[in-house]
């Protein structure tokens, strides 16, 4: 099999989607004959908050992204979201076929149809779930590729002696966790020694007893252990057009570690819940019932965790998805 040269343009070295939709696949893709050279955005893909800094940022970003794209010698270009937020212009300079990778409902924030334009220029759109594929289907050939989990890294570990509910995510998602505060408070009252662990880049502000909340500052080194040692993982979210585009990665990391989850049964979460390893909860009462049940019935919780691990290994592991990604890239290049 001939080597396929892939130029992957991501939104930055520290962006989660770049880590999990591109970078974690590189060793497996290399073994499959795909040599990937990543080109992270030097100045980031999103404008600075200051209005006065935006014009120089835009000029520098356009120049950097355009030159990088024109200099990239490859058989196919993998574009992880748009190169510059809300702009399609740089993609017209590509000399190679485009594959557009989308893991959020990014069309909801597009301007002047930029996302649609990129999709129409692409040989294929890799969609993180069926909801995203439904939108892009009329614009380009679509392929569903879930956000994979490195099952060798996210794996079961020793649980803490103290029962622990864990939520992991960025500060922008804390509002979803706050929305289930009444259920968390009721759970803390029902189960005396349980605590809530928050793995985040910012300290959480929750209306809960401070001595029952543990903040673990996010780091790549800390994130896995903080989940492995927990009892139940949390993935609350409202049912909106934006959240339906979420690819359930948070929930999948819990399940990969053998930690059962409780999640809002919307969007892709519903599919993961159906596959085993998590319970669905839409109302505060349902959240409380599910959490108390898993905290009190440890055998049932452990069995659910094993089912979740099995689902990840069968459907969402990087080792399972990497050959699919390689096939999609070769198909587009051909």
If you had to describe this structure to a student in words, what would you say it looks like?
The protein is an alpha/beta fold and 334 residues long. The protein has two domains: 4-148 and 318-333, Glycogen Phosphorylase B (Rossmann fold, 3-Layer(aba) Sandwich), CATH 3.40.50; 164-316, Rossmann fold. The longest helix has 19 residues, at 298-316. It has helices at residues 16-21, 26-31, 54-71, 114-121, 130-136, 174-178, 181-190, 220-228, 249-256, 268-275, 284-296, 298-316, 318-333; strands spanning 4-10, 34-40, 76-80, 98-102, 124-127, 142-144, 164-168, 195-200, 213-217, 232-235, 261-263, 278-280. 40% of the residues lie in helices and 17% in strands. Helix 10 (268-275) links the parallel strand 11 (261-263) and strand 12. The strands form two sheets. A six-stranded parallel beta sheet has the order 2-1-3-4-5-6, with helices on both faces. It has a six-stranded parallel beta sheet with strand order 9-8-7-10-11-12, with helices on both faces. It is globular and about 60 Å long. The chain is built from 13 helices and twelve strands.
